[in-house]
Write a structure and sequence with these properties.
single chain, 501 residues, alpha/beta, seven-stranded mixed sheet
């Protein structure tokens, strides 16, 4: 399938106009309504015509901030097809964070919910998006952009500083859709989307679903009990989520045991490491589902790894082998290519154009066109890649490099552990030392000394956590990854409190 730039990658298939494109739910998973492909297309064209009548110049940026909804998706597509550039913004940011991104991106307006903003911009209510707008969809004609024109700005989470606006071209994101559409899903597939649409993970999944005629079940935000109810009520076949979200599902034992979850045939996890315990639990709860683990970045897109061409099964915890559509390499700290373990670099047509308005940020793309991800991987003899950790997360304890992901995998191999996070705390002798937050599997029991002994038995002594705190769930960032910054601060305070006693 080839996508026309006129449609901005909007492959709304009117060959099946009455097929449901979206089922919208509330946070509890109950249906709020269904949108057919024809209804969605009409809403996009009506909104696009209305935007055209506002007189914004071609290429102008427009913010988009609110909970997940079909109207959010309508606004996103209408902006692109009207020749404007959507700027999705995390609704979890404080007002100052939203306003920073609107100002930094040079937005001329913003689609939003009822949140108060002090920026002097036209504000368009998301609840009025679609056919409620006073515009004739039949008059609308899509803008024809150049392949190098900006298709969207996606802002990084800003965990290490100010959020950076990643500029993605028309060519880059249409290439992703074409590659994904080359392997269409089985008829009748239903995706459950509860991860935030402002993040590459959920947005790319919705775009791919529209491109291949799949129905997306859209929740406004993730709620573990609502997510489980949505699977059962709407007969969802494909789950896409970060591992902490999946781990939270299994804490709801009553619903896991009482609901019919047999419709699920595929579970795709990504954006963060997953433990062997989590893989085992997914298979126990969803025995008819194929479990996949993936990887992608905002700067280089969601296509990097795939299944083994020779049919070898992908080991649990591996993201697969190099996808034939991309070029991958591992490098050491000096940028020299290494064979077994190093920082992943990727070159493909999905690469970003650059960071908007950030001359202070070093270009992460090498002179020969590879994006330097800062993610450390190892590769085995069969070509399977395994995520080791972020070079940014690495800390030094007594002269030894500690990658939290490596320690977390050891902790999570303990039979009673579901999930964990390892962070550093200051230490007068070693500089820093590792501590851990642990989520125990439902119905299991564990103690801190047992966790420490387990790590000492299965890893170098310097990696074992000096303190272990048990929590019901790990805090999540705005992209539903583990919020390491808040855990590091909590660990620091807990350690200081202990010293003060």
């Amino acid at each position: 399938m080839t996508f026309d730039y006129v449609n901005q990658g909007d492959a709304v298939s009117l060959t099946r106009p009455d097929h449901p494109a979206f089922v919208e739910t509330d946070t509890a998973g109950a249906a709020l309504g269904t949108w057919t492909y024809a209804e969605f297309d009409t809403a996009v064209r009506a909104t696009g015509q209305w935007l055209r009548e506002q007189g914004f110049p071609i290429g102008a940026r427009v913010g988009l901030v609110g909970l997940n909804s079909v109207r959010w998706v309508v606004a996103f597509y209408a902006l692109q097809r009207a020749g404007l550039v959507p700027v999705p913004i995390s609704h979890k940011l404080p007002r100052s964070g939203v306003e920073y991104i609107l100002t930094d991106s040079g937005a001329v307006a913003v689609f939003t919910d009822e949140r108060a903003l002090s920026v002097d911009l036209p504000r368009f209510p998301l609840e009025e998006v679609g056919c409620d707008l006073a515009a004739d969809p039949e008059r609308f004609v899509s803008h024809r952009p150049a392949p190098t024109d900006a298709a969207m700005f996606l802002y990084t989470s800003g965990s290490t500083g100010r959020p950076k606006g990643v500029v993605l071209s028309q060519r880059s994101h249409l290439w992703v859709l074409e590659v994904r559409a080359a392997t269409p899903p089985p008829p009748g597939n239903r995706n459950l989307v509860a991860a935030p649409l402002y993040h590459m993970n959920a947005l790319a999944n919705v775009q791919s679903a529209l491109a291949t005629g799949v129905t997306s079940v859209v929740m406004p935000a993730f709620d573990a009990r609502g997510y489980l109810r949505a699977i059962a009520e709407h007969r969802v076949t494909r789950l896409t989520a970060v591992p902490p979200m999946i781990a939270m599902l299994f804490q709801e034992r009553d619903l896991v045991q009482s609901l019919d979850l047999s419709s699920v045939t595929e579970v795709f996890m990504g954006s963060a490491p997953a433990s062997q315990s989590l893989f085992d639990q997914v298979r126990a709860v969803l025995p008819g589902a194929r479990v996949q683990f993936g990887y992608g970045t905002t700067e280089s897109g969601p296509i990097a790894f795939t299944a083994h061409p020779g049919g070898l099964p992908t080991p649990d915890g591996s993201v697969g082998v190099a996808d034939p559509h991309v070029e991958l390499r591992l490098v050491d700290g000096a940028g020299t290519v290494v064979p077994d373990q190093g920082v992943l670099e990727i070159r493909c047509p999905a690469l970003m154009t650059g960071y908007h308005n950030r001359p202070d940020v070093p270009d992460p793309v090498t002179a020969d066109g590879f994006y330097h991800t800062k993610d450390i991987f190892r590769v085995d003899g069969d070509g399977f890649y395994f995520f080791v950790g972020r070079s940014d997360d690495m800390f030094v304890s007594g002269g030894e490099n500690i990658y939290p992901g490596e320690v977390e995998r050891v902790i999570q191999s303990h039979p009673d552990v579901l999930h964990s996070a390892v962070v550093p705390v200051p230490d007068e002798i070693k500089g820093t030392k590792p501590v851990a937050f642990v989520v125990v599997r439902a119905g299991a029991e564990a103690d801190a000394e047992g966790i420490k002994r387990h790590v000492l038995e299965h890893a170098p002594a310097y990696q074992h956590p000096r303190r272990v705190w048990f929590v019901d769930a790990l805090p999540l960032s705005s992209t539903n990854k583990i919020d390491r910054a808040s855990l590091t601060e909590r660990a620091r305070k807990e350690t200081l409190d202990d010293l003060a006693r």
